[in-house]
Amino acid sequence: MLARPRRNRQSAAIRNMAVETHLHPQHLIYPLFLVDGQHIKQEIKSLPGVFRFSPDQLLLEIEACMALGLTNFVLFPAVADHLKTPTADYGADPDNFYLHTARAIKQRFPECCLISDVAMDPYSSDGHDGLVRNGAIVNDETLPILARMAVAQAEAGFDMLGPSDMMDGRVGYIREALDERGFTQTGILAYSAKYASAFYGPFRDALDSAPKSGDKKTYQMNPANKREALIEAELDVVEGADMLMVKPALHYLDVIHLLKERFDLPIAAYHVSGECAMLRAACDNGWLDFERAMPETLLSIRRAGADVILTYFAKDFAMRYPGGM
Ligand code: PBG
């Protein structure tokens, strides 16, 4: 035997030289759930270890993360039912607690990267990402609503905006609205290939944002499709996206790999709530070892081609591997 691959695995020093994939807290984005009020830190039942924070508690959480070298955050609001309307107007109200908190975060931690979510669902009485008319999600009338929300978020100081709604043409529409108002430096992290997935359950629990009727299959992608992701990504590139996202991550590693090969923009992957909850549940039952399964999971998403990973385990990873792995 001339070739013995095991020679490169025989000691930690040699294995470390031969490492192909690195993962550092700088590659991670930590999703955070915000609720109005004070002194609130409420655990999400279907996502143990993840909380809804009131603004005061959220600032403390971000401070702790920054100390661990975790600098990137995506913020989602849990909005009270009485503020939800068919047209999601509260989303663009400059006085809403979400935008207030964003201003406070950027004032306290100007060096962080704060990312928004652009979609109607947290503010919509229909629980859909777009405007509902006669039971249908209408595309073109949704765009100005999303653009108003996006401009309000840019004004509040978000560094990047994350359109997660999957309406056609929204990246370009938002890009133009931002540029017209001088927000040429506000980035767009496009949810390019976002699938109609069963793995968003715990997230919808966290925000109480499940659709009131129907499902999201007329705008989110069919899990059976891969080439369609290329169409979506190509459009987002042309329309001015700065990063392309695949969502979910673990069940779509092939799509991550495909986009990484075909596009030169940074590729992000959203390790979504249900994917994190599965792993957490198995570990809490003693069936898997979190200390090993969690980093292996994140590494697999990086290896598939993700430059950036949105994961509820971001803080868990940064605490254990402040210098990366
Ligand atoms: C909604 C949105 C969803 C997620 C992020 N933004 C849910 C949905 O599309 O219904 C899911 C994230 C997760 O499950 O962690 N615009």
Features:
single chain; 325 residues; alpha/beta; TIM Barrel; ten-stranded mixed beta sheet; two-stranded antiparallel sheet; 18% strand; globular; binds ligand PBG
Report on the architecture of this protein.
- Helix 4 (142-156) crosses helix 5.
- By secondary structure, the protein is α/β, with parallel strands linked by helices.
- Helix content is 37%, strand content 18%.
- The two termini are 32 Å apart.
- It has helices at residues 12-17, 55-67, 97-108, 142-156, 170-180, 201-207, 227-238, 253-262, 273-284, 290-304, 314-320; strands at 28-35, 41-44, 47-53, 72-78, 113-115, 131-133, 136-138, 160-161, 187-194, 243-247, 267-271, 308-311.
- It has eleven helices and twelve strands.
- Bound molecules: ligand PBG.
- The site of ligand PBG has 11 residues, from helix 6.
Low-confidence stretches: none
Assembly state here?
A: single chain
Second rung of CATH, namely the architecture of the domain at 22-245: Alpha-Beta Barrel
Tell me the number of strands: 12
Strand content: 15-25%
Task: Determine the N-to-C terminus distance.
Answer: 32 Å
**CATH topology call of the domain at 22-245:** TIM Barrel
Could you give a short account of the major beta sheet?
10 strands, mixed
Cα shape? globular
